[in-house]
Write a structure and sequence with these properties.
With 164 residues, this protein is an alpha+beta fold. The protein has 2 domains: 73 residues, SH3 type barrels, CATH 2.30.30; 77 residues, no CATH class. The strands form 2 sheets. A 5-stranded antiparallel β-sheet has the order 4-3-2-1-5. It has a 4-stranded antiparallel β-sheet with strand order 7-8-6-9, with helices on one face. Helix 3 crosses helix 4. The longest helix is centred in the last third of the chain and has 16 residues. It is elongated and about 75 Å long.
Length: 164
């Protein structure tokens, strides 16, 4: 199938895709597919697909495809702003606090590192990282570092000195 797509930023393109599933997550409908243009799994918001044309190309979705899990994993990659967060706790303790759209968690020394990307560093810092109850260090990217600094400054300002 050939789709014409327009991103949130207004960029438009066409891509031949093998549509595997339509999944509703976080209040939005997504097309989970294999993109021939990217030679990779991609998710497209259905409301941003402008046109659809059939092609003669046949395909079979992966046999072991779990559409919801694949979508969640894919939502954590391919965004504009890279993320790299190191946690001072073992992966087994941090993992329950990490949602797939945040990226992938990897062991690193005595702790772990979360590597992914986001389209919204402020939301990533305020909603996702602020909820994780373990010490962490943001190593990348610069947009996430700035968003975490903004949240930290706002929280620091919320605690003015008290008279003793």
């Amino acid at each position: 199938m050939l789709i014409a797509y327009r991103s949130e930023a207004g960029r438009a393109w066409e891509s031949e895709v093998d549509p595997w599933a339509v999944v509703v997550r976080h209040g939005r409908w997504y097309l989970l597919c294999h993109s021939h243009r990217a030679a990779a799994t991609r998710t497209y918001r259905v409301d941003r697909i402008r046109t659809v044309s059939r092609t003669g190309h046949e395909f079979e979705p992966p046999e072991d495809l779990d559409p919801v899990a694949a979508l969640e994993e894919n939502l954590g990659t391919g965004w504009e702003f890279p993320t790299r967060v190191v946690f001072d706790a073992p992966p087994a303790e941090v993992a329950p606090w990490i949602r797939p759209p945040m990226g992938r968690l990897h062991p690193a020394g005595d702790g772990c590192v979360l590597i992914g990307s986001t389209g919204n560093p402020a939301m990533y810092a305020q909603e996702w990282l602020a909820a994780v109850p373990f010490p962490f260090h943001v190593e990348g990217g610069p947009e996430l570092r700035a968003a975490v600094a903004d949240v930290a400054a706002r929280f620091a300002a919320a605690l003015p000195p008290q008279d003793s």
